[in-house]
Each structure stands twice: as structure tokens, then as C-alpha cells.
Amino acid sequence: MSTAPRIDIDLPAFWADPYPTLASMRKEAPIAFVPQLGSTLLTCRDDISISEKQIDVFSSHQPAGLMNRLMGHNMMRKDGEAHQVERRAMFPTISPRTVKAHWTALFQAHADRIIDAIAPGGRIDFMRDFALPFSGECLKSITGLTNIGFADMDAWSQGMIEGIANYGGDGAIEARCHAATSGIDAAIDDILPVMTKHPDQSILGVLLASGMPMESVRANVKLAISGGQNEPRKAIAGTVWALLTHPEQLELVRKGGVSWLEAFEEYARWISPIGMSPRRIAKPWSIRDVAFELDERVFLMFGSANRDEKHFERADQFDVRRDTSKSVAFGAGPHFCAGAWASRAMIADVALPTLFARAKRIEIADDEPVRIVGWAFRGLQNLPVRWH
Fold it and tell me: What's the superkingdom here (predicted)?
């Protein structure tokens, strides 16, 4: 265990809203051991940005970690050349060029079809009726698992996300995670004969063509599903909610004063969908007066970094005019999110402009509160709106 000061937290309160606790930690103990999480937390933006690049110290390779144990050893839990080999194998699918030339048109077709099915003049749950199916259909295309429904994709993603954040060891959560990974394996087995004969530009297609061992193919497809459904779904609904609750900023974007991408990037800073990334200390190390021990667990708190007062004025406020260049919403080092370009295309190039162009008026319904929870993975659980 590190020599960092011990800070106790109220876990339910931290789940509901981690930002007050994180702000207090940044001020009083920016590196602190939290016994309720069994980990030392880094909460300041500069410490996180520097440490994430020091893979010889803050290692992503965690043999006993929840992700390895529950989902298989994917590229996110590898460092150096081992990570880069698998990242390069996947790159032909998620490169900026492929996203622009191939995936964006498919994303647009999915968005148009789902919007066409929404009855005008009614009340909908935007999360359930658009964000979830749109994210799921896009992910089906990009992973190559077109033999399943978007609801399966969403359930599997949620099961794995909950599983790898299950630091309390809840048996029911772990069982749902195992069910999710088993479902993905079955879907891969089902489509494998077709994909082998007719490889395409999907993640499954390019990984199979690369000669990657099947165990790693499965692990990396699961990785793509765990983040590729959960985060975009929440970010789409969350950015819409943020803009609807800040109408003057929505008007600014609509008039072209700020881009849809800038609005999305500010939301991703403000309510970081990925609030934390775990690391293993690979060798004894010190930051200022805090010493770390070999193999201890450290959490890089991205959600805290993105509200660091040293870099963001009025950090707790949503402001589409903000310079978000210091944000670490997609990471800051060699593990920078490989799906960032696809996410930006889905949300900023397709979902947001299409939604606000197609809906003459969309407003938040007042008959149900909007629920936002989570600290490792944070976002909206629902978004009741009236759709005109």
C-alpha cells in the first residue's frame, strides 16, 4: 500500500455524485488511499497525464485484474509492443480514414431509420428509444456481429461494464458478466464461418485476417463492446440533455458559432463517461512525498482530472465555448481510446446534427427526473423528452 493519506468515502454518495469528494481530495489530498475502493487514487490532471505515459511504472498489465479475469487479456491490459501489435491490427477498422469513408454513412443510415420509427408528438425515453438502439446498431456494424440484436449488444456491454467495476465482489454482478461474455462467444462462433469466407472491414474481420490468436480476437471484440456501447450511448443522451438544459448554448451551436464536436467534447469533459482507469505499480515509485509499492493498484481518476481547477475555470459548469484541449476524456497516453474517431463520428457528425435537424422541437419532460449515476463509468440512465 502507498504512503498516501487515507481518505474514507461514502460509497453510495460517491456513486450518486463523485465530484464533491473528488474536489475535496484535489484540494486536501490529491493522491489518497481510499479503503472502500482498495486503491490509491490520483485526482489531479497533471499527475494523471504524466503518469499515464509512464507505462514502465503505471502498468496496464494486470494479470489478476477484473478485466483480465472476466473478459480475457485484451490490448487495453497490455503495454508496449504487445499493446501496439494488437492496436495496429485493429487500426484498419477504426482509423480516421475508414471512419470517414465507410462507417459514417452506415451510422447515418442507422440514425435515419431509428428516427423514422419514432412517433411524432409523443413522449419518449430518449435513452431507450434512440441513444441505445443507435449505439447498438452502429456497434453491430463496426464489430461485425450483425447476427444479433441491439438489445443483446446493450445488455452484454452493461454486464461487462458492471463486472469490471465490481470492486465489492458482488456475486450476482459477476454472474451477469459471465453470461455476457458467453453470449458474445456464441455470437462470434455463429458468424465465424461467414466472416472467414467473406472478411469485411469490421473489427472481427480485420482481426481474423491479421492472424491474431482466436483467444485475443475474442478478448478484443469484448473490449470493443464493453466501451463501444456504454460510453457512446450515455454520451449521446448526455450531450442532448446538456444542450436542452442550456438552451442559449444549443442556439449557439445551431447557428454555427460552435461545432457539434465542440459541444460533445465539452460534455465528455464535464461528465466523463469513463471516469477512471486502473493501473498496477510495476516498480517502486514516488510522486512528491507519496511512495508506491510494487504491484499495488492505482486509479487514474479521469473524471476528476477533467474538473481540475488548475486547468478549467468554472470546471463544474457546462460551457460549449470552453477550450477542452486539456481534457483527458479519451485518455492521455499510449492507451488513448482507439475508438475515439468512431465515437466522434457517431455523436458529432451524425447523431447530434441529425436529431436537432429532424426534430422541430424537443424538450425535456417534467414527469420524471433525469438520473445520472456512476464514478468509474458515469452517465444518464434515462432521458424523458417530448418529441415534436
Answer: Bacteria
Please give the single-letter amino acid code of residue 118.
I
Give the pLDDT of residue 62: 85
Residue 271 zone, left/alpha/beta (φ > 0; ψ -120 to 50; rest): beta
Q: Which stretches of 255-380 are DSSP H helices?
A: 260-270, 302-305, 340-344, 352-358
Query: How is residue 316 written as a grid cell?
Result: 463544474
All structural domains of the chain: 11-387 (1.10.630.10)
> Coil, helix or strand for 386?
strand
The string of pLDDT tens digits covering residues 7-34 is 999 999 999 999 999 999 999 999 999 9
Number of alpha carbons in the 13 Å side-chain half-sphere of residue 238: 26
Give the pairing of strands 379-380 and 297-300. Answer: unpaired
Enter the pTM of the model.
0.93
For residue 84 the three cell numbers come to: 501496439
Are 278 and 299 in contact, with CB atoms under 8 Å apart? yes
pLDDT of res. 364: 96
φ/ψ of residue 42, rounded to 5: -100, 125
Tell whether the model's pLDDT for residue 360 goes beyond 90.
Answer: no
Element (H, E) at 124: strand 122-125
* Rounded CA separation 44/250 (Å): 30
3-state secondary structure of 52: helix
Which residue shows C-alpha cell 464533491?
Answer: 20
> Cα-Cα-Cα-Cα dihedral of 32, 268, 134, 351, to 10°?
180
- Residue 344 grid coordinates: 466522434
Collapsing DSSP to helix, strand or coil, 185 comes out as: helix
- Round to whole Å and give the CA distance between 161 and 176: 10
pLDDT tens-digit readout, 40-87: 999 999 999 999 999 999 999 988 888 989 999 999 899 999 999 999
Which phi and psi angles does 295 have, rounded to 5°?
75, 5
Beta bridge partners of residue 386, listed in sequence order: 123, 363
Annotate 260-296 with DSSP letters as a single string.
Answer: HHHHHHHHHHHT-SB--EEEEE-S-EEETTEEE-TT-
pLDDT tens per residue across span 189-202: 999 999 999 989 99
Instruction: State the Cα–Cα distance between residues 29 and 46, nearest whole angstrom.
Output: 14
